[in-house]
Structure formats: structure tokens, C-alpha cells
Amino acid sequence: MSGSPIKVVVGKPGLDGHDRGAKVVARTLVEAGMEVVYLGLRQTPESIVAAALEEDADVIGLSVLSGAHMTHFKRVRALMEEKGLGDRLLTGGGIIPTKDQETLAALGVGKLFGPGDDPDAIVDYIREWIREHPREDAV
Amino acid sequence: MAQGTTPIESPETEPGRDFTTVSGREVKPVYSEADIAPDDLGANLPLPGEYPYTRGIHPSMYRGKLWTMRQFAGMGTAEQTNERFRFLLSRGQTGLSTAFDNPTLYGWDSDHPLSEGEVGKTGVAMDSLQDMERLFDSIPLDQVSTSMTINAPAAWIFTMFLANAERRGIPFEKLRGTLQNDILKEYIAQKEWIFPPAPHMRIITDLFSFCAEHVPQWNTISISGYHIREAGATAAQELAFTLQDGFTYVEHALAAGMSIDDFAPRLSFFFNSHLDFFEEIAKLRAARRIWARHMKERYGAKNPRSWLCRFHVQTAGCSLTAQQPEVNIVRTALEALAGVLGGCQSLHTNSMDEALALPSDKAVEIALRTQQVIAFESGAANVADPLGGSYFIERLTRDLEDEAEAYFAQIEAMGGMIQAIEKGFPQQELTRAAYEYQRALSDKRKIIVGVNEFVNENEELLIPILEIDESVERDQIAAVKKLRETRDNIAVSRELDALERAARTHANLVPHMLDCSRAYATEGEITQTLIKVFGEFREQSFF
Amino acid sequence: MGTDNVRIDDLSNLSAGVSPALAEGLWTSFWDGDRRACARLITKVENEPNSIPGIRERLADRLGHAIRIGVTGPPGVGKSTLCSAIALGLADRQHRVGVIAVDPSSPFTGGAFMGDRVRMDKFVGDDRIFMRSLASREGRGGLSPSTPYVADVIEAFGMDRILIETVGVGQAELDVMNTADLVVLVLQPITGDAIQSMKAGIIEAADLIVVNKSDLPGADTVLQSLRFVYSLGSAKSGKAPPLLAVSAQQTEGIEELVDTLEQLSTSIIQSGRHQELRQQRLVEEIKSGIVDELWQRYLRQSDAERVIENAAKHLAASGGSAYKFVREMCSNIQLTVDPKANA
After folding, report:
1. What mean pLDDT is predicted for residues B447-457?
2. Where are the beta strands (DSSP E) in chain A?
């Protein structure tokens, strides 16, 4: 991997206005040198994946504190596959019980973070994932 | 500051320790007479129950009446929440507090496409009067006070509550409770809005006016700092933005022609109680003092009840950790004690598992028991404002008051709170504070036990986790669809049309909303009718 | 991933001319209208300046018809929301629209926060519109250096109207003037003072001025002061751009704005101005291309870095003109291109 910034699309799907975490993480990613496309609130899985496609994002990060994480993560992951973005990382955070995290991991969703997790750990995780999963033309 | 400070002879401190509050405020090793102004122990500090109420709103405080133990509850269907309500009442809870699900909070029906996956998840689904009937089935609404945490569509959810009381033959005058109804903090912090600010402010003012006449015991608004704090504010920002929101509601009601003493006694507040014990106590004391002064001196309220800053306190959800969740019981107990020592009128204690899921019965019970221990075992409720006169507390109280006043001046210079919100000022202040706090945690300048220090690497989760059955959404959608088939749809259209016409005039909208609710119009139908007239607010994302 | 889809990473080594078959696959997807391929090609242009000449050669046949519309103005005037409305308006008039939103990169971390999509979510999933956020990267606060080439990719993808939105402070204002066929300057009532503080030239360069949120108090004052500025300016240049007002909720003024943009587009095409601007940009491109090319050759041919360093050391110690040194150095460079060869 050379010096080109990692591009991350950050959004909040569904009806959930709690954007403190999404904003703190977005800012942490920018401070870590990433390019963050912030989509904001009330996104649908369709709008998130369409944006990630046009932005050629390396990573999609979702924040869900509404309890609807199963619905949203599953749908976004399925759409990513459908639109040819299956090789990108889907990660995120919220109040997501471990059991649900395991179910989602089996569907190809990456690591999910929760309250108390250090945003720097998200930076490390994304960098590590990108290192281990280079898109072959990644520059 | 005019007055001096305690000299520190030998600042002996362990290396690497941090001596700032959760809000990043520097505190000194010790406080003495040198740190306080004469007024701090004089004019600012009369007995509890005396203006400006620094020490509490009642002379006897909790001897006369304990705070209301009010646990916020709601999940799944109306029947499930009704069951939880009855469980809490049977365990000694003294008031009800309703959590609605996200579609309800945004004014949408359960079968709206964007409601998918959200129905009944973080609160009870409420589509129409039908759900309200089920929610409060067998609960004596004339005896138990009821709080409803809802904002953007608060007025038309409240009219469903009124229509239900009416059907059960309970007169409006006997209803007691609180509607959160605070839209300004939605723009600042929680982001659950429908319209632009102006129509929301109109509806809120309409509700003040309607309740002053018809539902006199109802708290028409709960001006909330809680969410502002959860979104990252410091204690001073929470205090300042909340009270400034309060002034804004007062000014709108005055501009609508109401007189201050007609509505001010029914204004109530809702604050957060975070981890920093003394700073939180000082914040609550400062809130009472500032509100009393502004109401009396600035807005000319004559009725002493208009001067009172009465408030609910909830312990800080954002202080809960997913790691070693049992430790959250301790955090919540300290935060709750700060709320009590700060003189709250009602209190919610968070459950230990809320960083993991919605609370289980077990966790909710322990949270309630925590309040009961404070009330009945600790002795904290025996004496009013037991920390009054402490050099440290009085100095902190005054500092917070000064900081809030500085924010008021800054916001007034922008043209008021609505203009400040449109500029993104409070939003940016919060975002910055949240980031700073997170950096302090990442850099371990601040320690959270079990999270960035004293981590239990091999932790096993030993508490039960509540799961919401996915069938809730299907059932709720089926119910609302069936309702639309079986109700008198001609009446529904007639009332919605009347509401739309009224919205285009300056008429009070609450009676029309009540007519719609009586006819079993759904929440989403009322919302969509009003959107036709008022438009929708779009996110302004400020960093 | 569907088996009929060519993998997006087929673009590898395109600029180096290696694996042409794979690259052809991606080009095929691109010409077939695969938005993913377009997105990937843009990334390539952004991340690999060396790939630009090769990519532009492939695109050349498809370029020249689109109108590039720069949208600039002070921060907070509502450019993103306005661009969103313009894009939809143009799409409804049978155009295919590209939107490029440029946000500043942090000079310290290289990261960038790009929030334009928050206000541009009305057309997500709309095939008539392709939107891309760009970080300014080394554009020193102005447009990203790759912006014109990103516009080329989007144009070749089939978009005939391309909006380029940038925060109108400092360098970006000037950059957008050099990149766009039409410049829309967006102002709002409360930023009346901003008119004074804007970079000299942008007011004169604007082809259209929009006073956004015109229902807020102060709109008349802004309109008046703009008319005053132009009454002075038009005496000299004979040109005063249209002034339009758009309300905050954008219920009023948008249709007129889009119509005006259409008229301006038609007029610069018919008058030959569009062609002239394109030609000017090509002149600039050729010039800077020659500079780059010669510099690269110079570096390859000599021990240039060391020679320059020594010369500087000498000049710093003993005084003397750098230009003398430059003249001497250049007189030694042999241009291998025979000027007659192009005649």
C-alpha cells in the first residue's frame, strides 16, 4: 500500500439521531489521515451502498444504536455483494449484543465496536484490514 | 475572579494523575474561604425553599416528599410495555415514564418503509389511540403520574393520551404527568425533528396554551439537558444550552400573547447526572439559581411557582460501559446520589446492561433498588442540601453560573438560540467537547475502570440480555393496517382536512389534533398532513 | 460478484501499459456504463498522477461537449443544497449530470472530512446523476489538482453537465475559474460582508450570482450592493451577470436558476465561447505538460539535484543572481524536438 488515503463512507441507517459516536469516529479517522465521506442521519441501506459505489470507498462504517442493527447490517452487506462491492470492508458500531455480532460476522460483516471501545482501535482495525485485503489495483 | 484563592504550599501529587473533572475543569487540592465570594454564603444561599432556591425548591425537601422514582420503560408492543409498567408499580415505583420506539419518535407509522427493523426496538410502538388504550390498560391515570418521552410529534401523541382518558371517563383536570416536548434540544443533540423550528415552536406554544386551560396539572414541557450532555456537552454547556432553550420557549409563549405566570409554573426540566460527583451537584444547584433569577428579574414573573426550576434527573447513559457491566451499578449509584444531593424532583437510574441491550427485568429492578437504598438506607434524604456552604460546592456552583451566563451572552449576540442552532453553534461546541473527552480517554488522561484501565481480559458476560422478538414488528404492522380498514375513514379524512386547514391559519392546533386522535387517525397520517403545510427539516451536519 | 462483471481491479498498471487485456476489461465496463468502473477510474486519476496522460488519451474522443459549471461562495451559504437542486433540475431537463464536491484536506494529517452528501442525498441512486466527493489533497486549499481530470472521466462516462462545488475561500475560487465554463457565485444575506473579503476577480468572473436564503432579512441589501458593484464594473467590461434570488427552502427561484444556467450554456456554445475556453485550458495544459516533461528529462539527463544544490550553496555564500545560473543551465539543454516536425 502506498500513501493514498483510505476512503471511508460513514453513515447512520434508519431512525436514530444519536450521532455522537459517528462524529467522534469520523473525526478520529480524518485525524488518522483517512478521507471520510459523511452521509449523516436517516440513511437507507440503498443510499449508503450507492454512495459507497460512486465514492469507490474502501470501507463502509455504520453506526446503529437503535436496536435495528440486524436489519441494517444484513441489508447493507447483501447490497454490497449485489453491487460488486463485496471486496470492501463493512464495519461499524453501536449497542450490538455479542450474539448478534457473531451472526453478522458469519455474513461477512467486519468487527463491530461498542461503547467504551477506543476509536483509535477502529483506525488500527481498518488499516490492518486494508493491509490484509489489498484490492489488487490499490495504489 | 475578584476574590482570592487558597494558596497551595506544596502541591504534592502522584505523577500521571489527572485532576480535572469529566468536563475538563481544573480543580484545586483544597478549597477554603479564600475561594468564595461573600454572596456565596449570603444572598445566594438562603434556606431551601427561598429565592433564588440554590438549596432546593422546598423548605423541607425530601422529608416532605421523596423524589419520584420514575424508571423510563417501553419496548415491543403496547401490551408488553403495559406489563412492564405494572411490574414496576408492583415493585414500589411511584410514577410511569414511557419510552416510544423510533418510528413513533419521528412521527411515522409502524408500516412506513423506513420503520423497518425499528418497530418496538427501543420503546413501545404507538400508531393510534388504539395503542394508547392498550398501553395504559388498567393503570389508574388519575392516581399515577405519567411521563412521555417524545418531542417532535409530542402534541399529537399527547392528544391520543387525552382521548384515551376521555374514553375512560377520567377528567383532564385530574391528569398529572410530563410531556418532554422539547424540540430545541432535538436540533442541538438528538436529531429527532420533523418540521423546521418555527412550526414546531408554534405547536409547543399551542400546547402550553391548551393545557393552561384544560389540563392544568400537566407539565407541558421538560426542557432537557440530558440529551445535550449525552451528545458530548460539558456540564457548563448542558446547563447553559438547556436554560437558554428554556428562555426561548418563554419568549415564544410571551410573543404569542400568553402571560408569564399562566404557563411558567408548568415548565419543567430534565438534567443528566454524570460521573463527576461534585460538579453535577453544583450544576443542579446553579440551574435553580439561574432560572429563578431570570424568571423573576428578566421576565417579571410574579408567582413564585414560576421561579422554580423543577427537574427530573437521569444518570448518564454515556457513562455506562459494555465491559464488566456490573460495575455500572456503582457508577449509577454515585450519579443518582449526586442527583439527590442536587435536589431533583424525580429520578431515573439506568440499568447496568444498557450499553449492551435494552434492560432486562433483573437489571431494571436493581436500578430501582439503588434509588431505594439512597432514599431509605443512606440517610441522604434526611437533610436538605447537606452540602450547602461547602467552599468547594459553592465555588463550583458560582463558576458554573458564570460560565452559563457567558454562553447566554454569546448566544444572544447571535440573535438567540434558534439562530445559534441554525449557525450550528451549540452543535459544534458539543462535537468538539465529545472529541476532546474521547481523546482524554484514548490518551488515558482519564480512566474508565474496566475500559482503558483495570481491564478484565478474560471477561465472561454473566448477566441476562433481553431480546426483542422479531414478531413484534409484524404484529404491529398488521394491527395498524387492520385499523385503517375497520375505523370510520370518512371521519378520519374530515378531521385531517380540518387540521390541515387550521394549520394554514393561526388557530390553536391541539383541539384539531384531539379530534383526529378521537377518530383513530394514525400518528403518521397526522404527521403527513402537517408536513403538507409546514415542510420538513433537513439535516445540517455541523462538526 | 457476478461472473459477467469484469473485476474492478483490472485497471492495474494501466498507466504503465502492462496487462493491457485486463485494463481493456475495465475500459469495456466503463464504456458500458458501469458506475463502479467510473468510480474506480476516478480513484486512479486521484491517486496516480502518472496514469493521467494514458487515461486522458483513452478519453479524448469523448470530451469537449460538456458544460462545466463551477459553484463557489463563502462557507455556509448553502452551496451543497443548491447544487443538489440544480443537479435535479438539469436532470429533469434531459441532461446527465456529474457533481464533484471538493473539500479541504488537512495539511497536517492528509485526512479530509467530506460532508456534502448530507445535503445531496435527494438523488442518490438516480442514474441520471453521478456524484463524487474529492479531497483537495495537495491542492493547497484550492481544488484538488486532479479535479479537471476527474471531470474528464465523468464527461467521458456520458455526463453533459458537470457541477464542481467548492468552498469559496482563497485559492479554490481562482482554481474554479480556471476549470469551469461557467461560474456560479452563491451568497446569502447574512454574509453581506463577505463581498468585500472575496478574492479580487471572482465577482467579475461570475457568470451568475445567486443570493440564497433570500427570504432571510438583509437580502435586499446584498442585492443592492451587488448591483452597485456591477454598475461600476459594467461600465468597464460591459458585462453584468444575472442576479437571482433563491429562498431558503428552495421553493422559489430554483426553476429560474436552472433555466438561466441553460440559457448561459446555450449562449456560450453558440457564441463559440465554450470552444474558446476549452482551447484556453488546452493551452494551459500543453504548457504545463511541457514544463513537466522537460523537467523530468532534465532530471534524468544530469546530476541535476546536486548541481542545483551546489549552485545554491555557492550563491548563498558569495551572492549573485540565481537567474544567471538558470540561463546558463538552460542554454546547455538541447531540445530534441524539431520545431518543424509539427508544422
Report:
1. 91
2. 7-13, 35-43, 59-64, 89-94, 112-113
Cα separation, A1 vs C89, in Å, equals: 41
How many other CB atoms sit within 10 Å of the CB of residue C76?
16
Q: Please give the C-alpha separations between residue B58 and each of B48, B281, C114, C300, in angstroms, as whole numbers.
A: 6, 17, 52, 87
> Structure pTM?
0.86
Q: Does B543 touch chain C (CB under 8 A)?
A: yes
Mean pLDDT of C72-94: 91
Question: Domains in chain A, start-ordered, CATH in brackets?
Answer: 7-132 (3.40.50.280)
Q: Is residue B175 part of a domain?
A: yes
Q: Which CATH fold would you assign to the domain C63-270?
A: Rossmann fold (3.40.50)
Residue B420 has pLDDT above 90, yes or no: yes
CA distances to B233, B323, B438, B456, C44 from A116, rounded to whole Å, are 17, 8, 9, 13, 37
Judged against a pLDDT cut of 60, whether residue C15 lies above it is answered with no
| H-state helical runs in chain C | 20-31, 35-47, 52-59, 79-92, 147-156, 171-179, 194-197, 202-205, 219-237, 254-270, 273-301, 304-318, 322-331
Confidence of residue B31 (pLDDT cuts 50, 70, 90): very high
How many angstroms separate the CA of residue A9 from the nearest CA in chain B?
15
Number of domains in chain B: 1
ipTM of the complex: 0.94
- Residues C128 and A49: their CA atoms lie apart, in Å, by 17
Interface A-C, measured as beta-carbon pairs within 8 A, has a size of 106
A119 CB near a chain B CB, below 8 Å? yes
- Give C128's Cβ-side CA count (13 Å radius): 15
Which three cell numbers, joined as nine digits, stand for B27?
Answer: 480543580
CATH of the domain at B77: 3.20.20.240
Strands of B218-219's sheet in order across: B72-73, B95-99, B145-149, B177-179, B218-219
Do the bridges between strand C161-166 and strand B218-219 make them parallel or antiparallel, or are there none, so unpaired? unpaired
Q: What is the pLDDT of residues B301-360, one digit of tens each?
A: 999 999 999 999 999 999 999 899 999 999 999 999 999 999 999 999 999 999 888 888
Q: How many CB pairs under 8 A join B and C?
A: 13
Domain extent at residue B83: 33-442
The per-residue pLDDT for C9 is: 41
